[in-house]
Specification:
The complex is a heterodimer of chains A (160) and B (228). Chain A has 160 residues and is of the alpha+beta class. Chain A has 3 helices and 9 strands. Chain A has a single domain, classed as Mog1/PsbP, alpha/beta/alpha sandwich (Protein Transport Mog1p, Chain A). Classes of the chains: A alpha+beta (160), B alpha+beta (228). The interface between A and B is medium-sized, with 35 and 29 residues.
Amino acid sequence: MGNFTSALRTNTAFWLAALILLAAGCAAPPYRMDIPDAFKQYDTNQSLKWISADGVMLNTREVKNDPQAPATFWQDALVHHMTAQGYAHSATDCFTTQQGQHACTSTFLLPKGNQDWVLSETLFVGDKKIVLVEVTGEYARYEALADDISAALRTFAPNR
Amino acid sequence: MNNRIPQHRILGFALTALLCALSTHAQPADTDAPPASPQADAPPAPQAAPEAAPRHVSQAASLVLKVANATETRRALTDALAAFGGTPILLTDDSVVFRLPHAQLNEAIAHIETHGLALEKSLDREDLSLRIHTLEGQLKARQEIMVRLRDFFTDADVPATLEIESHMLRLVEEIESFKGQLRLLNDRARLATIRVLFRFEDRHRITTTHSPFDWLNTVGVDTVMEAF
């Protein structure tokens, strides 16, 4: 009886710990990046969502890699589509993350009200899905944080 | 002795005569008519031909430039025109005004045109020589009157002194005004002006185009902002 009780306690403790760890894992966003000092992160388990004091916003989301295509294909498609919409393509910067994942950031400009705004789209293309890291903000404010954002993107890694 | 004319009256007549004489003397140098009452000690009228005098020409260029990003272009132009001796004197969201030496104007315009698509270009040249020479003549005449008025102080009584002071006050105002105008004109003649107005590319007309790839249709600034 004593052995049974002891085993039950041990098992309960094990499953409880496992559940806590699982819950903690589920509560974390699916990706991680080193957050620059200028940004604060929203408490969400859906995506990485950062915002700076002057309104530069970063969001991540996933889309299906369908039809399955390499990064260069999607990069070209993105630039053509955004240019056709009226965005001005400013630059494309391709890089490899610290974990060895290849990615490209395309930057676009557009006037919004009487300001110039920037939209930067970084594509991490996988076999089944594409992770988009999207940043937007007023031109001067974005430019002030551009180096920090670029450095943070190089630390991008999946959380699970 | 009682019907003696007051001293300040005499001084008033003298001052009026002096002003008339020197005003006639202050005619622009290119007037052909000889002075109405040439004075023995007055310098001889310049006989040199007017074309020998230095020309004072102002140049002002204006460009309307179609650019992708006004802020970036303005910064690039400010850096680039420094090499031409250009200094920005006015910066706004959609324009920038530079002053630079006349000799560099054409090169600077050509360089500015490389930063975007020049929609409009104009160059305004104005010969300021006549206005500058006229102002210089008027200024010189007022300064000579000032010198002569000081001589009247020696024997002047109180009313005469007050009248001289009132004349001198008016002259000082005129002299300062002429100096200010001359400074302005000489500055315009010394440096050229370039005004660049920025116009955005047609990108401000964001149109909704449909992509066969669904996720591309969701990419945009508004999508990012809606997530917050």
